[in-house]
From TrEMBL:
Transmembrane annotation, as ranges: none
Binding site for substrate: E389, A390, N391, R520, P521, S522, G523, T524, R529
Biological role: Interconverts GlcNAc-6-P and GlcNAc-1-P.
Pathway(s) served: Nucleotide-sugar biosynthesis; UDP-N-acetyl-alpha-D-glucosamine biosynthesis; N-acetyl-alpha-D-glucosamine 1-phosphate from alpha-D-glucosamine 6-phosphate (route I): step 2/2
Name the UniProt record assigns to this protein: Phosphoacetylglucosamine mutase
Active-site positions on this chain: S67 (phosphoserine intermediate)
SUPFAM superfamilies with a match to the protein in the record: Phosphoglucomutase, C-terminal domain, Phosphoglucomutase, first 3 domains
A GO term for molecular function: phosphoacetylglucosamine mutase activity
Domain of life: Eukaryota
Top-level EC class as recorded in UniProt: isomerase
Pfam families attached to this UniProt entry: AMG1_II (PF21405), AMG1_III (PF21404), PGM_PMM_I (PF02878), PGM_PMM_IV (PF00408)
Length: 560
């Protein structure tokens, strides 16, 4: 590192002292904490993103968001050149950088890292980092700190993309690195034109619903609602009403949004008796999660949840059906020896009934720990990998090999079997590859794919919801002294430390028919999460409560 670079880092970092007595770590989806203590972390992640851009000689993304967390929190996520999450190899560096106590130590860490990673800083070509934020009030000043971090690496340029959904920023990074047009309007155009294409390919006579059959979307008082208002104007064949767009004065994620709806299973604010029986959906604070729900009756606050597992199942049924039409030996022998490998990725939160259903369809299902970064990595190993967390975070990945095969089939079929069912199935699959965000889970592209598939199948939300019946489940959070004391294994289904807890969970679980229960430290909030499933609601509640009590006794504040 030359002297100019060194003194630039020393002077800029002295303006961002780290908070005292706080240890930050790169969690499930980047750093998250109360916004008031994040200036220095965000500045330092700006440096990391610039180094990543120099190392990869590609565009990198930086998103200021705390997604589903409360409005006073904020956070920062890095998008790698592929548009996916930051490579896990760099997470330890992110941790040490965030916790360096003074400018000298920080510069030393960067010097050592740059040397180990063979990053050539001096005379490097200029590199771009796209920065964006969600609607949190703390976002503006944190984004400024991120820019200062980026500009502390000579040759790195921060491009401020303003307020975006997290998945839009990931999409832009991916598109830019592929050399295609990548503005927000390009994103909306890609989504709306591929959605239109899917509607045009709906078989005639399909019991498709009419436009009056509207979808009502809860925008979590965040960025997703305001962006959906723009996107919906570009759509035909779908009527969307947005509630909780943030303009009505509601608070971000408070009593609204995908996390609230999925965890509490009650009606979000802004919805009521007028919505009984209507198809409703909820986005989270930065629009990377999506769940659907129905209000079954006027007299109850309970909802019927159609969660990420059901979205995954709907996508799997549709993709499988299109593949089987395409592979039928009818007009042309499209089954030319290429075997498309379709895989499903879930986490321990997946409802047991969903996994049974997917296996009954003959699909391969594998499990990873919580966090899109893990699911995405596994899904990328298939020709078509569909991954979803029950909380509504997921997408579909298509391999380059599959895309090349599909394009060749479309060319072949348009010559010899234009307009045939096989040709249409191939065109539908191509439209899905363009509609679904292959960088990361995306509520806006997800909602359009769900809507297109429901219209294609002629299904109501009730019919979709009845694909299988969820096992009753309950999720709780427990505040503990040190959540890092809990270490898990086997895709988070077994507690390894502290000793004794797993045995106690097993003993509780054994008391309930179809009981299943696990605990894990959250990577986005300072809590231990408890998940329980059983054959009845009372049993699931009781199992979750007794395990939560156990966690509190062993690790809570009174246990010390
Ligand atoms: C993030 C991650 C998700 C994860 C969720 C909860 O979502 O991207 O993969 O499921 O956090 O994680 P945890 O249980 O560790 O707190 P989001 O939507 O908040 O970015």
């Amino acid at each position: 590192m030359n002297e100019d670079q060194r003194s630039l880092l020393l002077s800029s970092s002295s303006r961002f002292p780290p908070p005292q007595g706080v240890k930050l770590s790169y969690g499930t989806a980047g750093f998250r904490a109360d916004a008031s203590i994040l200036q220095s972390t965000v500045y330092r992640v700006g440096i990391l993103a610039a180094l990543r851009a120099v190392k990869t000689q590609s565009v990198i993304g930086l998103m200021i968001t705390a997604s589903h967390n409360k409005v006073s929190d904020n956070g920062i996520k890095v998008a790698d050149p592929s548009g996916g999450m930051l490579s896990q190899d760099w997470e330890p560096f992110a941790d040490t950088l965030a916790n360096a106590c003074d400018p000298q130590q920080l510069v030393q860490l960067i010097t050592d890292f740059v040397e180990n990673e063979n990053i050539t800083l001096d005379g490097a070509k200029s590199v771009e980092i796209l920065v964006a934020r969600d609607t949190r009030p703390s976002g503006e000043s944190l984004l400024e700190a991120a820019k200062q971090g980026i500009c502390s690496i000579i040759g790195a340029v921060a491009l401020d993309m303003g307020i975006l959904t997290t998945p839009t920023l990931h999409w832009m990074v991916r598109a830019r690195n592929k050399g295609v047009k990548a503005s927000e309007i390009d994103y909306f155009e890609q989504l709306s034109s591929s959605f239109r294409c899917l509607l045009e390919l709906i078989p005639r006579g399909s019991d498709s619903r009419n436009d009056a059959d509207k979808l009502v979307v809860d925008g979590a008082n965040g960025v997703g609602g305001e962006k959906l208002e723009i996107l919906k104007k570009m759509l035909n064949g779908l009527v969307i009403e947005v509630r909780n767009s943030g303009k009505e004065g509601g608070v971000l994620n408070e009593g609204v949004g995908a996390d609230y709806v999925q965890k509490e299973k009650v009606v979000p604010c802004g919805f009521g008796s007028q919505d009984v029986g209507i198809r409703c959906a909820s986005l989270d604070g930065d629009a990377d999660r999506l769940v659907y729900f129905i209000l079954p009756s006027k007299s109850s606050r309970k909802i019927e949840l159609v969660d990420g597992d059901k979205i995954l199942s709907l996508f799997a049924v549709f993709i499988k059906e299109q593949l089987s039409i395409l592979n039928k030996k009818r007009n042309v022998n499209v089954n030319d020896g290429y075997q498309c490998c379709l895989g499903i990725v879930q986490t321990a939160y997946a409802n047991g009934a969903s996994t049974d259903y997917l296996k009954q369809l003959g699909l391969e299902v594998i499990f990873t720990p919580t966090g899109v970064k893990y699911l995405h990595e596994k899904a990328a190993q298939y020709d078509i990998g569909i991954y979803f967390e029950a909380n509504g975070h997921g997408t579909i990945l298509f391999s380059e090999q599959f895309l090349r095969w599909l394009e060749a089939k479309i060319t072949e079929l348009s010559d010899v079997a234009k307009g045939s069912e096989q040709h249409k199935a191939a065109l539908r699959l191509l439209a899905v590859t363009e509609l679904i965000n292959q960088a990361v889970g995306d509520a806006l592209s997800g909602v359009l794919l769900v809507e297109a598939i429901l219209q294609h199948m002629g299904w109501s939300i009730e019919k979709w919801s009845k694909l299988y019946e969820d096992l009753p489940s309950r999720q709780l959070k427990v505040k503990v002294v040190d959540r890092t004391a809990v270490v898990t294994a086997n895709a988070e289904t077994v507690v390894v430390t502290p000793p004794g807890i797993q045995e106690a969970i097993n003993a509780e679980t054994a008391k309930y028919p179809r009981g299943r229960c696990f605990i894990r430290p959250s990577g986005t909030e300072d809590v231990i999460r408890v998940y329980a499933e059983a054959s009845s609601e009372n049993a699931a509640d009781s199992l979750a409560n007794s395990v939560a009590k156990l966690v509190d006794q062993k690790l809570g504040f009174d246990s010390y």
